[in-house]
Amino acid sequence: MNTILLCGRRNRATWFGAALLLSIAAGGCAGSRDEKLANLIDLGEYARAGERAVSELGAEKTYRVRRLNQAQQLLCADGRPEEAEPYAFEAFEILRTRGMNADQTVITLGPDKTCKGEPFEQAMTYSYTAINQLMLGKWDQARAASASSLFLLKEFQDAEKPANAPSLDHEAIAVAAVMKEQSGNAAWLDNGYQPVETNFSLGYALHGLASLALNRTDEAADNFRKASVYNPGFTATAQSLLAGRDNTVFIIDYGRGPEKQAYGHHDCFARFVPRTPSADEPATIAVNEALAGRFPLVQDLNALATDYRWTSLDDVRLARAILGDALVAGGAAAVGYGVSNDNTAATIGGGIAVAAGALQIVNAHADTTQDESLPQRVYMAPVNISRADSRVEITIGGQQGGRIVLTDVDPPGAGQKMRVHYVRLAPGGGSWQSSGRTLYANDQTKAPVAGDDLPYILGGRCVRTPTQDVLERYRAAGWLRDLSLEDLKNLYREEGIDIDSDHGGLHVLEGGASLVAPRAGTAGYARLFGQEHPPYRPRSRRVAALAEQVSAVLAARGPASERVSSR
Amino acid sequence: MNAVAIAVFGAALLTGCAGVQQSTRMTVNDNQFVVAETQAQLRQSEFLRDRSPLSPPAVVTLGSFTNLSSDLLSDAEKWRLLEFIWPPRLREEKNIIFVEPRGSAQAARSGSDAEQHAMEQRAPTHRLDAELRSAERFGAGERTDLYFFQYRLTALATGERNWTGGVEFKRTAAGKPWN
Fold first, then answer.
1. Which CATH topology does A3-149+170-187+199-362 take?
2. CB–CB of A264/A348 below 8 Å?
3. A136 Cβ under 8 Å from any chain B Cβ
4. ipTM for this prediction
5. Min Cα separation B48/chain A (Å)
6. Which of A316, A329, B41, B154 is the most buried (most CB within 10 A)?
7. What is the tens place of the pLDDT at every residue in A205-220?
8. Distance between CA atoms of A475 and A479, rounded to whole angstroms?
9. If you ran DSSP here, which 8-state letter would residue A396 be given?
10. Which helix (H) or strand (E) holds A286?
11. Where along chain A do its domains lie?
């Protein structure tokens, strides 16, 4: 830990008190970043990343909503919105609870604290709850969740400020807070702001989309208008949605969200630094090789994270407590205030002056805890899907990881007004992201796949849930004629593969025990079925023996590409 | 046509908890209150009050529960709020039976001919729908949500509204929203 040596006769008592405060309150909370999770997300391994987020929930005492948001987000990205729903509800419950921390901190970890995340992280958490409900076709619930993301912001800057006045940052706010305190308004940070309308265009867009699906057209138009006010590029997308020509909407996440870093006087302050640069690149969508449209982004998280209204002021409170008057005296060079003439006064920024009997204050490094799962930007792209098993190609810029090909995308079902897909592009995603192939037969598509006349557990390429219909397909190809359906199901059970519930979890193709297929039109579907997986390794003697028999027959019959089950 | 009967319980905080509330989300107690109040209104309604075991059969299907409030409701909560408002022994005392909604009934079937025939015999005569709305107010350090439930029983043959019921209550929570 760094140590600041400060002195100043008249402020010694204040600073000693601040030191006590720090040593108790700071607790060495330097924030922890889950690099393992971040790496899995980078690679597009959303199933494993979701598993990690869920497994960390039990140990999470303070910042539970971060893990809940990660779970809901990653499971949706993996094409499993049903499994994400409980986490979405719990995240909503926490965020809707008010006044959880008596000291009004938001992000600071510590005993008896409930961390809800930066305001922009909270808005994004509500948005992912809305996206989860949109994927499930629960338009009314999506409306409620997205409406919650549109909370008022705290504006400290004078509305009549000069046109060329710089935007406030945390250091300037901290100085202002100390000056207000000196003039008798110690509660300025809590009460000295104006509540202003949010500029969260993604929230307005999601609200509008949900309203549109509920046939509340006027409400949809109002929200789309607001989204366009704060993001003029969204105007054309809004018009397309209101025209009602499109039956499918892709909500697309791209890039790596900004990273939270400590900076400034002894790392007292926190700020967000972009990792993926902001850019105006549109998302280009092609459906079955035909261009469907180019869509501008609807939300740039770099812009949110660098706007003080969207970040917590916990570091400001701490800096005010640590440095107090010294902030005003020492930060003068930066903000134009005079430095004390007392030759034992501390200066900050220009160096630290040390006098005899100087106090030692433990420096509390700003908390850099953050939700590391967020993207850099979000797109909303309405298109029309007119036939089953359509192919959708999404391209953003020319960077690696900026392209994904989705297969087996169906139009909305009978009676469904629209279908919403959430797609997360992986910056480090493998070739599966753009392979455009479906290599394994699954419950999401009836389209034939080479080698789907045999179950995967016996050497084939079928991972459909065993049913009478599926068994008939195997039999028609000459396989498993002496097995009943129950015999076939028992083979899976002997392997520990869950076929009796729709619980989900890691898929058998990735070493798990589930046959539940992710939804088509998601990155999870593309990753699972768009790349080769290692051959299955039986655990039970029965399945191993059967697989050996099959292998011998296959060797005599020829390559898999010649074997496609009849329909 | 039954008269509209709405129970309005303006300022009541419905939980038995003393002390400051931190959330305006609905609780289990609120749902139970809504069910109890709505059931009482139904008992007194013209639709139900004058029926007997000899009345023409009424086949009721549960329609949609549309949530236009600021809160999230689980599927189980929605179904409970539709299903549990009906008093007991309706088949024996009022000649009213309930059938599954078409969507869930179809999903539960494997599609055999016999089961499709059974689907067609559902023949509901009435449908119950519900809607939940809310209005939010924000004051100094607190938030108030006023919730309003509305139920509608519609005769499917004629479109006539046979019964409408409603329950209203509010919840207030203190504290800042960000922390």
1. 1.25.40
2. no
3. no
4. 0.84
5. 30
6. A316
7. 999 999 999 999 999 9
8. 5
9. E
10. strand A283-287
11. 3-149+170-187+199-362, 456-562
